[in-house]
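Session log. Operator J.P. requested a structure for one protein chain; no other inputs attached. Running the standard single-chain path with token output.
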Amino acid sequence: MMEQVLASGNLRKAWQRVKANAGAPGIDGMTVEAFPAFCREHWPRIRSALMAGTYRPAPVRRVFIPKPDGRQRPLGVPTVLDRVIQQALAQVLTPLFEGGFSQSSYGFREDRNAHQAVRQVEACWKEGRRYAVDCDLKSFFDTVNHDRLMGQLREKIRDRKVLGLIHDYLKAGVVLPDGSREATPQGVPQGGPLSPLLANIVLDPLDKELEKRGHCFARYADDFLVMVKSAKAAQRVMASLTRYVEGRLKLVVNRAKSQTAPLKQCAFLGFQIGQRGKAVWTAKVHARFKQRVKEITRRNRGLRVQDVIDELGRYVIGWLNYFGISHSYTELLELEEWVRRRVRLYYWKQWKRPRTRRRHLLALGIAREEVHMATRSRKGYWRMSANSIVQRALTNRWLQEQGVPDMRTLWIILHYGPKARV
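Structure written below.
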């Protein structure tokens, strides 16, 4: 198997994947751009070490990513070299395990995504499963039991060099921001190309157990919901699931965050079940969207309006590509109107002086007497962004021509296809 991992075609494909993902340097400071020159000089030696089983991965560089709730998510950044090797490993190992994974597992798998997981929750609702077991695994990636994981890998991998290399990656350790090194007696560091596959391998027995019990569920990485038909059944499943996860899988259930509740009260991947059993985005998602748009259109940023609109467009389109499957059409229209108002506010702030505002309003077709009323107003920026004169100058169509996304049209296309009437 190591020969397969190190085959030139497999390595070339791995490098292209790592190159496309870019990413920050590891502890050695090497960038993706500098890697080819390094590889030309040192690859024969590295390949020999891998074949001999003497290669030792570098520790990952610990970085912390802010989470929406104010906490920080720890990530491990491997060196570019280790990212390429891990990617090459993942490409060879994935076909060995993929065929046996559950149909209800959607995370980190080809041709599967979070939207399908949300649709699975909708399907369970239609079957009359209106209660949920929302089980949170505490620090999943940091608590994976290495011995148990290696035992699972040995069931399908016979090459001791490959097994040894994976074990070395698990034990490589991390270098903290202050430069100190920390051992990794357990856990799978988030951030490496191999980690998603290992996470699915660890949780596959959980999927199989849920299938054996006949449950309807959806799992995306360590985020999963089990849907049942009554509150009593939910409590019973939660108790047995906790025993299984902690006893058999050696993971930890976060009791403070886990719950049994009506399905409509449970959030999953940023969605929850709304009216008529359709997925809608959660209140937290709505609040985060508005907070981010406020940051982009903050009136004291000092950027050109076009730069702000370009940044806003990238964010809104990316947000809609994920959350646009929500059936919150009325709410989307309200958000779109609010986004346009934020842009009008930014324009009004940028024009600032009465003379500048006068010139722009006249150019946009506003009558002179009305221009005088608007430019001399003492109302604040936010109130003026809803002023009828400003709205008639900065029309919806004009804002769209400047690059402000047409959220309504994008939503309709996402739900009904590009030929739908808008």
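Operator note: The beta strands are 60-66, 72-77, 131-136, 174-175, 181-182, 216-220, 223-228, 259-262, 271-273, 279-281.
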